[in-house]
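Now for our specimen.

. . .
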Amino acid sequence: MGLDQETIVKNTKKYFDTTNKLGFMTEDLMSFLGEAFIKAPASSMTDFHNAFEGGLIDHLLRVTKYAVLINKSLPVDEQVKESSLIKVCLLHQIGKANLYTPCTSEWHRKNQGKMYEFNNDLVSMRVGERSVYYAQSYGIKFTEEEFAA
């Protein structure tokens, strides 16, 4: 499975239109993320989810959609501010932008579903930590609740 180029373009537009509309994307962060973010998979193995080009943004949009629906189904006094929820959902895994490189071993791709390998040039840290690091490094501000989420 995978996404066609039209869907990748549509998802990318929706992602950046939403982040710009809500005012939490900076030009510096957009530039830093660049094409690597647009092409990034959400995972490395076909046994997981979205291990294909454009899979990360697709995943972030789905997480956001379901989080908003769940939030709206809660009693009003238990709901969180929707703009903060969307911000956290759309930024929570941007640290995967440069995390994976295509697996060059046909045997691993065919027999194990290993489509991507970890980029060993990066300092080891959890995806959430890397995501916050990237966001804060390029001008994104978080409330305590957003940071904790």
The chain has a mean pLDDT of 95. The longest strand covers residues 100-102.
